What we know:
7 helices; 15 strands; alpha/beta; CATH 2.40.50.1020; 5-stranded antiparallel β-sheet
Amino acid sequence: MSAPSARPTALIAEDEPLLRDELAEHLRTLWPELDIVALAADGVEALALLQQHRPAAVFLDIEMPRLNGLEVARQAAGRSHCAFVTAYDQHAIAAFDQGAVDYVMKPVSLGRLATTVQRMKERIGSTPADLSEMLASLVRQKADAKPYLRWVNASVGTTIKLITVDEICYFRADTKYTMVVTAGGESLIRKPIKELVEELDPSQFWQVHRSTVVNVNAIVGVIRDIRGHLQVKLRHRPETLPVSEGYTHLFRQM
Length: 254
């Protein structure tokens, strides 16, 4: 009688604890045979765990501190099958086209992840694609990119307040001004939405309406109203944000 085959192993690298735990829970549900051998909170930790465990599969957030997912994937090239988890699909699509197993957009939906799991299962016994050259090119492109806006000086009454972009849930055009909405309140800046879009990191901020730009990390889900139109639900705000028809493609995997 032959010995049972070894369980496939996986590493998850995601710097946001809630998202990391959620992804692990979803994978355990969708793929009970998968052995999640390690969870990493940043790219450097992911690299060390990659060397230690040599997993068959890695699920990598592209934007991580210290070392991003693209750089970690370069080290996994030819050894582990890669699936990227990202808030913006520019880099992930390029990797997928070159042989990465798949990519999953944030916020992660169970249905879309099920498709990724199925594709991963089909490839898990084959030699992983060597993405090193293509990933090296993408890493260089990211390094050469212009710095994005990191904070804004906003008016709250007669006070000027410095607000980091990570605190911002969304921006909304308001006549001559732009409203800056955080979990704790609202303030105004004079910069128009059109200029903001060009200065914000597109992996963190999505324009979902001609007058609205939302922080992807503030999104908790997407629903359809009674007319079938998409509405964004926010993690720390009670209101929902309408999604214009021209921007629904951002949520096509959800």
